[in-house]
Amino acid sequence: MAGERARGLGAALTLALVGCIVPDRHIDVRGAFVNPGPVRLIQSIPVTAAAHAKCRDEDPQLPSCPLPPESLPFGRIELEQPFCVCPGRDNNSLGYFDIYVEDADLDDEGRPKDAILGALLLDMPGATADPAPYLAFQNILPNTLPASFVRLGVGIYADAIDRPEPVVRRWTLGADDGFDLCNDNAAAPDGKLSPGLHSLRLVVTDRPWYRPFEVDANGEIVLDADERPLRVDATQAAIGVPDLPGGASYATADWVFRCDDGLDAEAGCDCAEEM
How far is CA 272 from the centre of its chain? Predict the structure, then answer.
């Protein structure tokens, strides 16, 4: 379940699906790299009483339409109290909340097949080819940590109508101390963001992150004994770039938020003592 601050955010905002991180032109996906079940991000949405009644018409055992639990809605994060860049922590920071992803691929024994990875990218321009400089909050969402399988109980999202039970995974962001957007980015100096408007993109994929080809001193692709291109080690993977040639699917969504200056007496900040 989402934290107290996340629960207070109200109805879900419009999902901000944005442009591709890598272009999908001229990509040849072959044979074993075919991926029948694409990954997707899921969130609860407002549903009318009439819609709930229709769901109960389909299945009288349902108390309402099957929906995932509430989370932090994608889009602009707007709260009554401001987020602030503070000398220490921000007492107005978000509580913990969950991110839910769905991927239908199963192995031969009916278990979830794909490991789902995620990354957060801060203030990345739309035409960026290399997301590495924009990786952020890896202390909150480690980019090598697979989402955990979760079974959403009877009477909610598990009881999907006219399709198999969804295979859902979950990360919990800010489980220990909440998610302090303006003061707890491990990739930033002292963890601090600059005052102003920021964007935060979430990228999820169902394959390991893309590994570029190895090149020699002359810039030529290195081949193995069978004349096949070699890829760099997994430790040099392009985090945030889905491996489309390897059959990856991916999904993205964005949040937008503002950090005010905690030293501004008129900003209405609530800064804790220094860390």
Answer: 28
CA 235 to chain centre: 21
Q: What is the mean pLDDT of the chain?
A: 85
Say what the pTM is. Answer: 0.82
Q: Which amino acid is at 188?
A: A
Which residues, 6+ apart, have CB-to-CB distance to 41 below 8 Å? 15, 74, 99, 100, 101, 102, 202, 204, 251, 252, 253
Report DSSP letters for 32-98, one per residue. GG--SS--EEE------HHHHHHHHHH-TT-SS---PPP---SEE---SSPEEE-SEEETT-B--EE
Q: How many CA atoms lie within 13 A of 229 on its CB side?
A: 11
Burial 120-151 (b: 16+ CB within 10 A, else e): bbbebeeeeeebeebbbbbebbebeeebeebe
Note whether 96 and 175 are within 8 A (CB): yes
Q: What is the 3-class SS of 254-270, one letter each residue? A: EEEEEEEECCCCCCCCC
Sign of the CA dihedral 54, 56, 62, 64? positive
> Which of 150, 239, 162, 232 lies closest to 201, judged by CA?
239
pLDDT in tens, 9-68: 333 322 333 334 444 444 444 455 567 789 999 999 899 999 989 988 988 888 888 889
What length is written for the chain?
A: 275
With DSSP H G I counted as helix, E B as strand and the rest as coil, what are the percentages for the chain, rounded to 5?
10, 25, 65
Spans of all domains in the chain:
1-22+33-260
Instruction: Output the six-digit token pair for 205.
Output: 């994929």
